[in-house]
Design goal:
Elements lengths: L1 H50 L16 H8 L1 H34 L5 H7 L2 H4 L2 H23 L7 H25 L3 H9 L4 H30 L2 H6 L7 H11 L3 H27 L1
Helix pairs in contact: 1-12, 2-12, 3-7, 3-9, 3-11, 7-9, 8-9, 9-12
């Protein structure tokens, strides 16, 4: 009787071991799959960064280590001018988009007004529509405004860094609104009510209570807007006028002729800056 019980228990004991073995093989397969995906995504970027230090003048073979391409990059006035223009556009558009996005997020989250649902839907459109569509729309709109200004004032207005800044603000505001609204959804309104009960007026409640508590979300939205502006190519190409040089467009024009280690060097520096901003944005939102 004892032997029969022992024999019947063996299959039940072996079953978890088999299930554990299947899970192990599944986990191994998923690990290999994940490694292949990461290699596919990041190996070209790693090769680009590596070839920014090669001595090869075409930047496609490893013939020795050198920093000459970075030194030549900083001596290239055209590339440096395009870099400064790009940073200027990114800083100004980020500041304006952050202010407008924060105010719009507070209006949508705190107040109920006619047309709120429509505004809430429209504010998400720049996130989902193709960038080329938005670039063409902004180009047509700027041409219409320029014609109107010329009719009213006889002044001829052309595309410049200002039009690029306006274009970047147009698509960055939506991202700022989405990030700031996540801060407001978790906000404890009783803190504002307590400050108001203690005699604080509306401005003091916002500046001393609300803004410090949603500041991580505001910073996260600003860093995201800055990164998007820094990397944008299509809208910058459409809205920049003659003689206005921006780094993504300048890099594209050079790559059409040949990929040099100088381009690899500026791409590596932009990559490092973008990764740093994304890490900062994620860190700030995680603290929130």
């Amino acid at each position: 009787m004892i032997e029969a019980t022992s024999t019947a228990a063996q299959p039940r004991a072996a079953r978890p071991a088999l299930e554990q073995g299947r899970l192990t093989w599944s986990g191994l397969a998923l690990t290999v799959y994940a490694v292949l995906i990461y290699l596919f995504l990041y190996l070209p970027i790693a090769i680009l960064a590596l070839f920014s230090f090669t001595r090869d003048q075409f930047g496609v073979r490893w013939t020795g280590f050198t920093l000459d391409w970075y030194l030549r990059l900083f001596a290239n006035q055209r590339l440096m001018g395009a870099t400064l223009n790009t940073l200027y556009v990114a800083l100004v558009s980020t500041f304006v988009a952050t202010v407008l996005g924060t105010l719009l997020a507070m209006a949508l989250e705190r107040h109920r007004f006619r047309g709120r649902t429509t505004v809430d839907t429209l504010i998400h459109l720049p996130i989902v529509i193709p960038e080329i569509v938005m670039a063409v729309a902004l180009l047509a709109f700027s041409a219409l405004v320029f014609d109107l200004i010329r009719l009213l004032t006889d002044e001829i207005v052309r595309r410049s860094l200002t039009t690029v800044i306006i274009g970047h603000i147009a698509f960055s505001v939506s991202f700022v609104v989405v990030v700031v609204r996540t801060s407001l959804k978790n906000f404890d309104r009783r803190l504002e009510e307590a400050a108001a009960d203690l005699g604080a007026n509306g401005w003091n409640v916002f500046w001393r209570v609300t803004f410090p508590l949603i500041l991580p979300g505001v910073i996260g939205g600003a860093l995201l807007a800055f990164t998007l502006s820094l990397d944008d190519f299509i809208i910058s190409l459409f809205l920049s006028g003659p003689g206005t040089s921006l780094l993504p467009v300048e890099v594209y024009n050079k790559v059409r002729r040949a990929v040099t280690p100088e381009i690899n060097a500026i791409s590596t520096l932009m990559l490092v800056l973008s990764i740093t901003l994304v890490v900062l944005s994620q860190s700030v939102q995680r603290r929130q």
